[in-house]
Every structure is written in C-alpha cells, then in structure tokens.
Specification:
CATH superfamily of the largest domain in chain B: RNA polymerase sigma factor, region 2, helix turn helix motif
Number of strands of chain A: 14
Structural class of chain B: mainly alpha
Strand content of chain B: under 5%
Largest interface: A-B, 41 and 54 residues
Number of helices of chain B: 8
Number of helices of chain A: 11
CATH class of the largest domain in chain B: Mainly Alpha
Shape of chain A: elongated
Distance between the termini of chain A: 42 Å
Structural class of chain A: alpha+beta
Oligomer: heterodimer
Largest sheet of chain A: 8 strands, antiparallel
Helix content of chain A: 25-40%
CATH topology of the largest domain in chain B: Rna Polymerase Sigma Factor, Chain: A
Number of strands of chain B: 0
Largest sheet of chain B: none
Strand content of chain A: 25-35%
Shape of chain B: globular
Strand order of the largest sheet of chain A: 3-4-7-8-14-13-12-11
Amino acid sequence: MKEERELQDVLVQLSSLAPGPADAPKPAGQALAVIKRQVKQEKRAGCQPWQRFWQNPNRRWATAVLSLLILFTVAFSFPAVRAAASDFLGLFRVQKFAAISVSSEQLALLERVAEEGVSPGELTIVNAPGALIPVNSLAAAARETGLEQVLSPAALGEPDEIDVVEGGDGRLIIDAAGARRIIELAGADPTLFPEKLDGKRVEVVIFSGVQQSWDDGTVLLQTTMPLVEYPGNLDPVPLGEAMLQMLGMNRNEAARLARTIDWTSTLLLPIPRNVATFNEITINGSSGLALASLDGQYGAVMWQQNDVLYLLTGSGDTVELQRIANSVR
Amino acid sequence: MTALSDNALLEQARLGDDASFDTLFYRHYDRVYGLLFRLAGSRAEAEDLTQEVFLKLHQHAFTHKRFSPQREHNLSAWLYRVATNMGYNAIRSRQRRWQRNTMLVPDPQGSPAAEVEAERRETETAVRQALAQLPKRQVQLLLMRQMGFSYAECAAVCGVAPGSVGTLLARAAKAFRKAYKEKT
C-alpha cells in the first residue's frame, strides 16, 4: 500500500516533465514530410549501408575512431600522404595501442600535403573492405568471418543488429622518392625514409569483422588484427621517427620517443586535439585506450585480446563504455 | 470500421504502400514525441530525436528488412524502446553539462512570474537529473507508466514478464525518490 502511494507520488512528480501547450511539436504532417524528404534524398543518392553508417552521428564517431585506427595501418581509401604514413606503421600484428595528440594546424598541413597528389607508390586495392552484410545471429557471424567466437557485452543484452563487415586486401609497391617528398612536405626529415625500400612491396590484409549494434547507438566491432607483410630487414625506428615528426613532434622528441616504442607490436593512433581526449585503460586484463569527444557526446574504447581487436563506441561516457567493455564475454 | 493492426500496416508498407507507413507514423508520433520530450526537455531536441526514431523504423523495415513478414512484431514496443534508448542517452550526456553549468544558472530577478518560471524549470531539471541517475529500464518503466501505458505494454517494451512490472515499478520509484532527494 505504501509502495503504491510512493509510486503515485513519483508519477505525479514526473508529470511535470510532460510537454505543455507551448511545447507542442510541429504538426505530424510536417514532421512526416521531413522524414520522407530525407528518405528520398538517401534513395536518390543511392545510399549504401556504409554511407548511412556515416550519417548516424553515433556511428560517425565510431567510424571516425576506426578510421584513425586504420589510417596508420592501411592505405585504402585515403589520400596519398595518409597512405604513405600508414606504410610506416602497418608492419605487424598489433598488441598494444599508444595515442598521440595532433594539433589542428598539423592536421591541416597534412590535408594540404594530401592535396598535392604525390603518391608513395603504386597502390592496388584487390578487394575493398567495409561492406556491411546483415546476419541473423552471432553464430552466423562467426561462420562468415572465421572468428573462433564472437563475443558480446553481457551488460547490453542481445544486439539489435548484427552485421558482418567485409574485409579486404591490397598492396603497395613503394616509390621511395614519392614517400620522401610526402615526408618533406609534411615538415619531417625525408632522409629517414630508406632508399632501399624503393620498389619493395607491402601487402595488407584486413579480415572480416562483426559489428553488433544496439538501438541506443552503441556499436561493438571485433575483427582479427589486420595483417601487414613488409620487406624483411627493415628497421622500423627511423620510419616511426618520421611519422612522429609528420604528426607535429619536434625532431629531438620524435627521435627519443621512436626508440622507446616497440614498432613491431604497437599501433600508434593520432588523435586530433580539437576532437577528442584519450587515456590508457585496461579491459579484461588487456591494455587499451579510451577516447572521449570534447563535446562529451561520444566515447570509444578499444582493446585487443587473443589477436582480436575490439572497438566499442557509443554516446555514453567512457566510464560507462569501460563497464560495458569489461562485460564482453 | 476496424483499424488495421501495426503488423498489418507494416506488411503493407513493406510491399510498397507508402500510406501504411504514414498511418503508422500518425498513430505513434504524439506518444513518441511525448516520451522524448519528457527526457530531452526541449522541443527542438525532442523533435530531432523523434525524427531519428521514425527514420530508424523506416530503415529497419525497408532497408534492412528486419521485420520479417512471417513473424508477429510488437512494433510499438520496438518504437518506444528505441525512443527511450535515445532519450536516455540524451539526458545522460547532458548530465555532465548540468554539473558544469550549475553555477551558471542566473538568480531569478524581476517579476514574480519570472520567479515562478525559474522555480518550475529548476524542479524539472532536478527531476531529469534524478532520472539520469537511474538505470535505463527504471527510467523506461516510470515514464511509460506516467504516460498511461499499461503494465503489459511496459513489460513488452522493457522485455520483462508482465507480472514483474509492479515490483520493478516500485523499485524504480524508490530509486527515483532517493536520487531526487540527493539532487535537491
């Protein structure tokens, strides 16, 4: 009886949130017209699932984070300079992450360099990655991707959508002169790029992954770590040093830091300073990174476990995302 | 004349009948907006979120074909679940702004009407802040019940047994009272 009375009191209190006459929405007809216009525009543009992915703000953030990750591991779909940068780092199976904050001025400089159209080599995309294929269950997703098991966060329950994200592969035949020119244009020391790499081949494989989505905008992507095969006898330290310089670090600092990073297992993520902040975290005993957009709207956590990369994004804060990530089983 | 069920409209819409989608929209627009306004607290934000919910419905039904014609779907449960998820995220992400802006709220000055209005807004903000402290399911239950949804409807949206709704609501009310007390 007391509980019922308390509930009624709370419901009365909550009624203060109901829209008043001044809060009435636009007429339903108008609202429907807006929706139909948007649907029509999508159809006219021939939107593919991956394009709609970009249009959803939550997923845009997810994709932005994923793009940052891919930026320095593969050359697909990025302008030449970014492709060049990716070659410097995509030489391994990633075991840990490190982040570097990049200023908006430096990013603008890299954009300008990209527009120069200088190529770091001959890029061939054999199979373009990224297509989304809806599947009915996690078991089906595991079958499609070859992942031993597809994990899901217990904290969120069943996903509302499950998609297989198709993998891809490609190769780059390095043009040392082009690569050096790009480094130079970005304000870094071009001699750090070894001449002996000219004509050498870098192969990149991105494996198919599984994307689980929940209606609140939370997305969990898991995929086997990208595999990059590179020329043997390569010393990655000078390349890492060049990359750090390209991201705006002064030469002394870049040289010092490049020597402390294990380039064969660390994925360096450039984080635009005007977009997000980051901190190191531990998820289920593995090291990872948490990123929070500066406007507090979106967050992401990424970690690797047993050679599988996990990326969880959503509109919750990163503490909440870590809680969800820790429930991934 | 008997109105077509949501499932029948969904099926007709799936076969290309735009008018059926319109009927679904008109049927649920006010309640979805009402739910989102309670959470968002601003007309513009609630309208945007409402639009997103129905766009999602359109994509879900037509692009991804998630609603299979062979199955019975509880469309309203799906709609209000999506709506509360979105609205809940909105108040959660605003939580930090509230914390930052507490000191920026101006003291009500001037006419008594302005004072009353300021007080009303303060109360609403405190209620929303208290809601933001609760787990999503408790927020769903409380708001839907306040809007007049039946226990069966609440159960369908939250994915719980109808028989447990009473207990869950009582718990939610208790949690709300505690959170509200801490906020005021």
